[in-house]
């Protein structure tokens, strides 16, 4: 483990949309700064994701002014870019992420029309309201303190950690089965932190690690869904890599790949930071 290092970092401002590669990942109280603070919802307020609306993965967000807490710029093939201001003056409305009711602000009709045209269905763009108190669940935190902690609009954990060797092992299995290794590309798994210098699935055995100066509690393994079968470039749906993963990564009826993680507190993780194991699972 002495050679393990952070090899890539990603932030995902809009839930299910493309990520932004960064050299430094700033962490605030909710997770990566700016990560999953925006999402699309349907008429009932339910979260809309790439699982059911694959074109969403082709939306490329950017921080319009370089500020993760500021305006968002959205790009997608075939349409003009859209700048969306933080809708702080909009009334608070309800939205739903899995079992959680979350207060959000609606970003307005122009943003709704743009996003609806791209995903091919009527949707609204919303942003997490500052008053939101969506609780962090203990299973995502490992040994770090979780009581009173909050999360943004992710499926549940503030961060996702994945080893490059785990991805490479999957790609080797795909190639052996005559499938393109591209079907196992890292972008399909939407990790915030990619680590090099480990054995395949070594991260499964971690309970607590330090990435640079930031302490991370490694919680539950991440169950993977059909979103991994959506090509991040074309939005085409297939069966891989979920079919191949199911052959060797099924636990308790779910396909597990990567680890949910929670930071002990605000800080910054940088590409190249050493990753040290502080505690392994029993």
Summarize the topology:
Layout: E1 5-11, E2 20-22, E3 24-27, E4 38-41, E5 47-48, E6 60-63, E7 72-76, E8 79-84, E9 92-97, E10 100-106, H1 109-119, E11 124-128, E12 159-163, H2 164-176, E13 193-196, E14 206-211, E15 214-223, H3 242-246, E16 250-251, E17 254-263, E18 267-270, E19 275-280
Parallel strand pairs: 12-13
Antiparallel strand pairs: 1-2, 1-13, 3-18, 4-5, 4-11, 6-7, 7-8, 9-10, 10-11, 12-17, 14-15, 14-19, 15-17, 16-17
The helix-strand sequence is: EEEEEEEEEEHEEHEEEHEEEE
Radius of gyration: 18 Å
Please give the share of residues in helix. 10-25%
Euclidean distance between termini CA atoms: 17 Å
CATH architecture of the largest domain: Beta Barrel
User: DSSP strand (E) fraction?
Assistant: 35-45%
Shape: globular
Compute the number of structural domains: 2
Uncertain regions: pLDDT < 50 for 5+ in a row?
A: none
Largest sheet: 9 strands, mixed
Derived from helix and strand composition plus strand pairing, the structural class reads: mainly beta
Give the number of DSSP strands: 19
- Quaternary organisation: single chain
CATH superfamily of the largest domain: PK beta-barrel domain-like
CATH class of the largest domain: Mainly Beta
């Amino acid at each position: 483990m002495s050679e393990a290092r952070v090899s890539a970092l990603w932030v995902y401002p809009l839930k299910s949309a493309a990520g932004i590669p960064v050299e430094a990942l700033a962490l605030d109280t909710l997770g990566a700064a700016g990560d999953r603070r925006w999402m699309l919802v349907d008429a009932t307020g339910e979260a809309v994701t790439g699982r059911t609306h694959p074109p969403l993965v082709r939306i490329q967000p950017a921080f319009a002014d370089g500020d993760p807490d500021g305006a968002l710029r959205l790009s997608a093939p075939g349409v003009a870019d859209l700048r969306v201001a933080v809708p702080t003056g909009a009334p608070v409305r309800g939205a739903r992420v899995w079992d959680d009711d979350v207060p959000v602000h609606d970003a307005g009709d122009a943003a709704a029309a743009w996003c609806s045209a791209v995903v091919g269905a009527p949707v609204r763009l919303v942003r997490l309201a500052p008053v939101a108190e969506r609780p962090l669940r203990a299973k995502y935190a490992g040994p770090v303190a979780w009581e009173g902690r909050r999360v943004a609009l992710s499926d549940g954990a503030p961060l996702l950690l994945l080893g490059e060797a785990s991805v490479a092992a999957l790609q080797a299995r795909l190639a052996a089965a005559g499938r393109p290794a591209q079907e196992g590309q890292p972008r399909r798994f939407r990790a915030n932190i990619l680590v090099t210098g480990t054995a395949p699935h070594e991260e499964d055995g971690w309970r607590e690690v330090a990435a640079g100066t930031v302490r991370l509690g490694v919680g539950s393994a991440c169950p993977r869904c059909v979103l991994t079968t959506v090509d991040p470039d074309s939005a085409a749906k297939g069966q891989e890599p979920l079919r191949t993963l199911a052959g060797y990564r099924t636990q308790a009826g779910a396909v597990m790949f990567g680890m949910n993680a929670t930071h002990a507190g605000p800080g910054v993780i940088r590409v190249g930071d050493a990753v040290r194991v502080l505690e392994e699972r029993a």
